[in-house]
Amino acid sequence: MKRHHVYLVVLFMSVVCQSAVAQKPVENAVFWEVSGNGLTKPSYLFGTFHLKGAHYVDSLTQVMDKFKSSSALVGELLIDSTLTMKMMSASIMKDTTLDKLLGADDYQKTAVWLKEVSGYDLKLFNTMNPMTIQIVLMSMVQQKYFPMNGPQDAPMDIYFQQEAKKSNKKLVGLETFDDQLKALFGQFTLKRQAEMLMEFVNEKDKAKDEIIAMNRHYREGNLMKLEELMAKQTYTEKEATVMLYDRNAKWMEQLPQLMKTQQTFVAVGALHLAGKMGLVSLLRKAGYTVKPLKTLL
């Protein structure tokens, strides 16, 4: 249970990566070189999969080579020891409980699936909002079919930041925890969260198949397939815009200056790269040359 809580903030970020709607595709890659437009050295853009770990990313030899040669690491937000408690606090419902919000039948369906994939009793999470329960279920399905390589295998976003600190790289977060909180919990009422949770639970076989497919497409570096898969999710276009594309636009206000001053390795969720409002397209529109790279040397 403790390990789950430690990584909950990273799993929280993964929900944002499921909100894409169909856009004009970019080339098939999750790793990119950014050059031109006044840059003296190229920078690099890597699409992470928040539920995969250090053991996996260590196998991506070209990704790690460019990461090691970069002077700065840029992530979605800086991950520190305070974030777990902030996330747990944000997930707590003040005026109701999960069993009351969902009703007896839906609560029981959710409890059965959680017990099946994790062994946990839903009563342990009864004060947590439905969005958090969906994140927990997603992470448990991921771990059932694609377990990390032991208790020391940190999620890749945490791993990059740990390694950057060890080598004294500059660390930059593109947004704060409060920014992410507003994009996720802030725009959804508890009723809407409950609706999305039950859509996920009622189609649990589909959810399992999609998580398996997501892992396959990510390993293949198939950004187009990832985009197609995520376009099938239940978020509205407005919700997706708040969670994904508005954030991309804000990040683009910071990235040019960061890349201008040093060779920068940018590691953000893979779906932030895709489509006409994704970072690859936005960087190209800003005048940069952005070319796909293989993840292996």
UniProtKB/TrEMBL annotation:
The record's annotation in Pfam families points to: TraB_PrgY_gumN (PF01963)
InterPro entries membership: TraB/PrgY/GumN_fam (IPR002816), YbaP-like (IPR047111)
What is the protein's name according to its record? TraB/GumN family protein
Question: Where does the record locate the signal sequence feature?
Answer: 1-22
Residue ranges annotated as coiled coil are: none
Keywords attached to this entry: Signal
